[in-house]
Amino acid sequence: QKEVEQDPGPLSVPEGAIVSLNCTYSNSAFQYFMWYRQYSRKGPELLMYTYSSGNKEDGRFTAQVDKSSKYISLFIRDSQPSDSATYLCAMSVGSSNTGKLIFGQGTTLQVKP
Amino acid sequence: NAGVTQTPKFQVLKTGQSMTLQCAQDMNHNSMYWYRQDPGMGLRLIYYSASEGTTDKGEVPNGYNVSRLNKREFSLRLESAAPSQTSVYFCASDLLGGPYGYTFGSGTRLTVV
Fold it and tell me: What is the spatial distance between Cα A75 and Cα A91, in angstroms, rounded to a whole number?
């Protein structure tokens, strides 16, 4: 079993829809949780970063972490065609000099106009 | 533009050939990483360098070697390429060696025939 599991999709939604992307994990020591966005043939770019449990909002994006359930989510409100990309969750235990991130498989999202 | 630069962008090798993937960052980051990305597998860590002068194995180091040439540069070498090493390779860097979010390069697409 992978340490981080993510539904690869693909996920196709109409423009304006609310999108929910999710990851589960097995290592209870993870403390740092991130979402990366990767456009086709590009490198991943950091979208959201959360420490421990709770919610974080940035514009149309909301990241949620539920450590008791070992479950994280990314919500995209009013989705746009420009949101079409692969979204990767990533997490880390986080002690100094060991900032190695463990990534999920990525979910491919297509937002149709 | 500041960031992580990877060369080459594309490469085709024959089985048994060797090559070095180059990575350089100009953000004065301390830590650097090499990942490979395969369909359905997400990003998997090959090697990382927490700081200049140190390197450590990641999840999938077999068949690879690395050199942290200086603070800016971190190279990945394939000594005897195999078809299983066909992948997209990403270099990333991070300021503090902690999980505060990597900056990724644009990737090297490698095909081994």
Answer: 17
